[in-house]
Amino acid sequence: MKSLISIIVICASLVFAPVVPAAESSPATGTVAETMESGGYVYIRLEDGVWIAANNFAVSKGDEIQYSGAMEMNDFHSKSLDKSFESILFVSEASLMGSDGAVTTPVTLPGNGSTDVQVKKAVAAQAPVAGEIKPLAEGKTIADIFVESDQLKDQVVSLNAKVIKINKAIMGKNWITLQDGTGTMPENKLVATSQAVVSPGDIVIVKGIVKTDIDLGYGYFYEILLEDATFSPGLE
Fold this sequence. Notes:
Layout: E1 28-38, E2 41-46, E3 51-55, E4 64-78, E5 83-96, E6 103-104, H1 142-147, H2 149-152, E7 156-170, E8 173-179, E9 190-194, E10 203-217, E11 220-233
């Protein structure tokens, strides 16, 4: 079996430290001993005892796989699996041996209360100050959404907000960070997922479904996420 690819060790806990990407290297290979699926990801234990995690793809016990772009996390706990891993490799690509296409795993997502785990920095606009963004007469503010999250769960809400940054085409969606000058850190920004494309600095009216306690795996946990969001010109 080929040796595992080089990794960069995470030097502090996930709560306080950003993940650092591993250096590029040749793919490693292994034989699958066990698999678990959760939150759109597959967790794989290889026969040599190594755990890896990748975007979900069809894989079974006994399959030979290849993977690359690994980074190690120590003492990682997956809330969706309710399982802790003493060591696990998060890989940017994984596929069956002989497969034509590798499965790419996104490694950059915005955060809204959890640590921002970013490989490359997105272009960001300046956050608005209190009173800069006009609230919708029949809408919500970001502060309202956090305070009323239990009542608003799975409900459609609207708000007027400023686009702070956008991370495009991750897991088939654009991840858009919004602020409106309300709330206190870390509950002063909201992430919306959408197929729409907006630009940092845009003032927009956003409509989307409130989702709470979203665990995407890979250390990405959202207290609140605004899903299936649509955008229209905002109130200046």
